[in-house]
Design brief:
The chain is of the alpha+beta class. It has 3 domains: about 80 residues, no CATH class; about 300 residues, Outer membrane efflux proteins (OEP); about 90 residues, Outer membrane efflux proteins (OEP). The chain is about 55% helix and about 20% strand. α9 runs antiparallel to α10. The N terminus is likely disordered.
């Protein structure tokens, strides 16, 4: 184990505070003596960094003497346990998330939560259920319809009519019965309609399949929205972190320039320049924090999370893999995968079935009808009497519309026009799909190249800042030169963060375009 310690004397006064175990942490117990006492993680970029890319630094400030003591754990070499650090990192992250009560979210977890809390998906699911129910409505048109009927009618009194029989009796033929009761069990069964009901049923099935594809497309669109919101939060947090690091570096430079001013080595304008740049970067940090908070608000709304619940995002910005498939192969794959295209194809099939149903409008149809009557008096019983009597009937009915004023032809023409519009829409969709996939693929390729260029820029800017910092310490470079290097490094780190975010979004957009 190798431990290196650095003791830096910042300004005059009493002798520097000696290093001992707990010397700096005593500041945490004596806030009236120390202005700042904190433990922080310094980021490091470039070939000169250690294997861990940074160091744990303890910084103590004594305002009366301006002493800074920094103890850096620069490198730790452990033999015999090469996988220990890799195992400890996720365990420590999980323990920290459990201790703080933060909700750990992978990208897959976020998408699943959005599916569970989406009002849009519930609407699409209800529309799919409606389309499934319409299949039952269309199927019922081919089945017998059975109904029960009952009625009561009160009529005015009439004169009874009767006949004198040869045996001298008077027989009433039409009695005065003002109270009439009727009941009937009726059956209607369509036997033939020239294929109209079958075409309507197939059209309803195609609409139901299209509604199911709409739901799948809604999930794909919501997935892209969640992925974009997730990476927006990650990008916002990374941007805030980069700006905080830049502000810390600028603060250290300000202290160095102030020390040189106190020693009479630089003019006051150098301090003012650094202070002005620090104020500008602080304002930009405030704006970055606001953008991060807005992104977190949008993600919370998508996932249905409580406003005060802290979120820990597990995923980090990485370079997405490149795609080796050609745009033509991707477009062919997308035509078979994308749910919205499948929905368009199903609706095209539905409109074609409607044309068949409209064509059957001027053709003959046949139906069977039957019923049982139980009434008092029963009008089919002669002579009429006040007793309950039953009767039945069976009939076959053929209907052939000979003239309807051109209504059937107009319905057929309208249905054919809808088919033509659906075919044109599907062809235009395929054209736009090919263009969109090619554009997304080029955007992903450019984003990956931008990430590589940004990485090179960060390495160059970090090395330039290191060299200028050494020259400034040696007194052969001005504070303006070092300030320019600080700004260049900050801009390079922001460019890298933005490039990584654009690469992730480009990969997600390509997956959405292909239907993955």
């Amino acid at each position: 184990m190798l431990i290196s310690l650095r003791l830096t004397w910042m300004h005059g006064g009493p002798a520097p505070l000696g290093w001992s175990d707990g010397a700096c942490f005593g500041a945490l117990r004596a806030p009236d003596r120390y202005a700042v006492a904190r433990r922080e993680r310094n980021s490091c970029h470039g070939p000169h960094c250690g294997p861990n890319g940074g160091a744990d630094v303890t910084v103590c400030w004594l305002p009366t003497t301006r002493i800074m003591i920094a103890g850096a754990l620069a490198a730790i070499t452990m033999t015999g346990t090469p996988g220990l650090r890799a195992q400890e990192a996720p365990q420590q992250g999980a323990q920290q998330g459990a201790q703080t009560g933060a909700l750990r979210l992978t990208l897959g977890d976020a998408v699943q939560r959005a599916f569970e809390h989406s009002h849009r998906l519930r609407e699409l699911d209800a529309r799919r259920a409606q389309a499934d129910a319409n299949i039952g409505v269309a199927r019922a048109a081919d089945l017998p319809q059975v109904s029960a009927q009952a009625s009561y009618t009160r009529t005015n009194h009439v004169d009874e009519f009767g006949l004198q029989t040869p045996d001298g009796l008077f027989r009433i033929v039409y009695p005065d019965i003002p109270d009439n009761y009727t009941s009937r069990l009726d059956v209607q069964w369509p036997l033939f309609d020239a294929g109209r009901s079958r075409a309507t049923r197939e059209s309803a099935k195609a609409e139901a399949r299209a509604a199911g594809r709409d739901e799948a497309d809604g999930r794909a669109a919501l997935r892209l929205e969640v992925v974009s919101a997730y990476w927006a939060v990650v990008t916002g947090r990374e941007t805030v972190g980069v700006r905080e690091q830049g502000l810390e570096r600028l603060g250290a430079q300000l202290r160095d320039v102030q020390a040189q001013l106190d020693a009479g080595l630089v003019p006051p304008s150098d301090v003012l320049n650094v202070e002005a740049q620090e104020s500008a970067q602080r304002a930009e940090l405030i704006d970055a924090e606001a953008q991060r908070d807005i992104a977190e608000l949008m993600l919370r709304e998508l996932l249905g999370l409580a406003p005060g619940l802290p979120i820990e995002l597990v995923e980090s910005l990485q370079v997405p893999p490149a795609t080796e498939e050609s745009p033509a192969d991707l477009a062919k794959d997308a035509a078979a995968r994308r749910a919205d295209r499948q929905a368009l194809a199903e609706r095209l099939e539905s409109t074609r079935r409607r044309v068949q149903a409209a064509d059957a409008g001027d053709r003959p149809s046949m139906a069977l009808a039957a019923g049982v009557d139980y009434a008092r008096p029963n009008p089919r019983i002669f002579p009429r009497n006040e007793d309950w009597n039953d009767s039945w009937d069976v009939s076959a009915r053929v209907t052939w519309p000979l003239f309807d004023g051109g209504r059937a032809d107009a319905e057929t023409a309208a249905a054919r026009a809808v088919v033509a519009a659906a075919e044109a829409r599907l062809a235009e969709y395929d054209r736009q799909l090919r263009i969109g996939i090619g554009r997304r693929q080029l955007q992903l390729r450019a984003a990956r190249a931008s990430v590589q260029a940004a990485e090179d820029g960060v390495r160059s800017a970090a090395e330039a800042r290191r060299v200028l910092n050494e020259r400034f310490t040696a007194g052969v470079a001005t504070s303006t030169d070092l300030l320019d290097a600080q700004v260049a490094l900050l801009q390079a780190e922001l460019t890298r963060t933005s490039a990584l975010a654009h690469a992730q979004l480009a990969a997600a957009a390509l997956d959405r375009a292909v239907g993955r």
